[in-house]
Amino acid sequence: MTDRDQVLAKVKALIEPFNKKGAEVTEATRFAQDLEWDSLTVLDFVANIEDEFDIVITMNQQAEIENVGQLVDAVGQLQG
Amino acid sequence: MSDLFSKFDPLIQQRETLLSTGITDPFNLVMESVESPTVAICNGRRTILLGTYNYMGMTFDPDVVQAGKDALDQFGSGTTGSRVLNGTYQGHKECEAALREFYAMDHAMVFSTGYQANLGIISTVAGKDDYIILDIDSHASIYDGCALGNAQIVPFRHNDIEALEKRLKRLPAEAGKLVVLEGVYSMLGDVAPLDKMVKVAKDHGAMVLVDEAHSMGFIGENGRGVAEAQGVIDQVDFIIGTFSKSVGTVGGFCVSNHPKFEILRLVCRPYVFTASLPPSVVATAATSIRKLMHGSNKRAHLWENSKRLHGGLKKLGFTLGTDEPQSAIIAVIMPDLEKGAAMWEALLHEGLYVNLARPPATPANMTLLRCSLCAEHSAEQVEEILGMFEAAGRSTGCIG
């Protein structure tokens, strides 16, 4: 697996506990529209992502992230 | 043409559904006359006020009222100007002097509202490459201060010391950082562990701003707030406060010991580009602040009221926002908005006003009946209030 594939696999695993609808998760899956997450769910999920990859995703950056693929890209960049 | 108002349709629909049940609109109450800090006439009925933030009951204090009348006579009804142009009168300087004395700090800056104080200080102090690390349950004025500025915003879970520390550790060591906390969080009335959080912030080189809007005058030996009560006020860089709660009028402020603080008067847009407070308002505020310095007996009575109401409501079977009373705010958690609105109306019929709070103002989508006590509530009034909660709770089925 490439580094990006590994990040994607970890992100998907971290989505699962919050995937109440059991929706199929792809890179195109959108957090607000498809997973229907509210702001508190987003906070908890982002905290888990931050802990897993030892990064901080600011609210400014979160505003630019709509779907799973964009999050994987952002994690890759933030890990530097 | 698309209607710019269509984005409000879901809210309009929710309101119509609620009001179609014939319930009194909880967000449209009119106080027809006000008798005292604790009693007003609403819908022709004498009503005990339990949702005013008038913690120290200063609104009808004879000295405070007289100071306002005198200032109206001597200085007129308004300043019609910005603080940096023609809007600084003797009264504004005296008000800032009273604040410096109250907090024993070097600098004080008075804004036209508490909202503008947060808006101004937060947006001005933290620049583009700086980080603001804030509690997720922060007040709207703090979030709006972040939105007005262009710093990087990092939220952490409410009152979670470890979550704060983790984020501070991950940020670049050399970056400017402002940790924003509140002494009392107004929705549930819970207090922040400032003693630990301020230390964590300082250990990681951050400046600290604490909003003490709901603790001024009441919490701490001198009423300086939670930072004083927990022994860390000396390490707090900026305290934000308001005149619209314990002080009993309107206005906001920031106090600080920062040696360069005064420059903010020239660069802080919500301070510069608005009219200053009317002379009567700063006169009432200054008088009230000076009286609050000697308010220890009232503080003790307010604690008694808070403890009695908290214990009584708990015994009746209501679910409360905190296990123990931590402030003058007692939040009663309602199962949903419909039940909350029904209970709110039943209390109003009993002759009691509380705040109905609902999302997005509340954490975790909760509907709350928020009670804020006043030092002028008598012990008898608190018993009366408990009787009203019991009757309304039973008639709406909120308690068994």
UniProtKB/TrEMBL annotation, chain A:
Q: Which Pfam families match?
A: PP-binding
Top-level lineage group = Bacteria
> Which Gene3D superfamilies does this UniProt record tie to the protein?
ACP-like
| Domain named Carrier: residues | 2-79
Question: What is the name of this protein?
Answer: Acyl carrier protein
Question: What is the originating organism of this protein?
Answer: Sphingomonas alba
UniProtKB/TrEMBL annotation, chain B:
Keyword Secreted on this protein? no
Q: What is the lineage of its organism?
A: Bacteria, Pseudomonadati, Pseudomonadota, Alphaproteobacteria, Sphingomonadales
Family membership: Belongs to the class-II pyridoxal-phosphate-dependent aminotransferase family.
Q: Which InterPro entries match?
A: Aminotrans_II_pyridoxalP_BS, Aminotransferase_I/II_large, AON_synthase_class-II, PyrdxlP-dep_Trfase, PyrdxlP-dep_Trfase_major, PyrdxlP-dep_Trfase_small
**Co-factor requirement:** pyridoxal 5'-phosphate
Q: Note the superkingdom of the native organism.
A: Bacteria
**What UniProt keywords apply to this chain's record, in alphabetical order?**
Aminotransferase, Pyridoxal phosphate, Transferase
An example Gene Ontology molecular-function term: transaminase activity
Q: Can you give the residue ranges of the Aminotransferase class I/classII large domain?
A: 48-386
The protein's name is Aminotransferase class I/II-fold pyridoxal phosphate-dependent enzyme
Q: Does the keyword Transferase apply?
A: yes
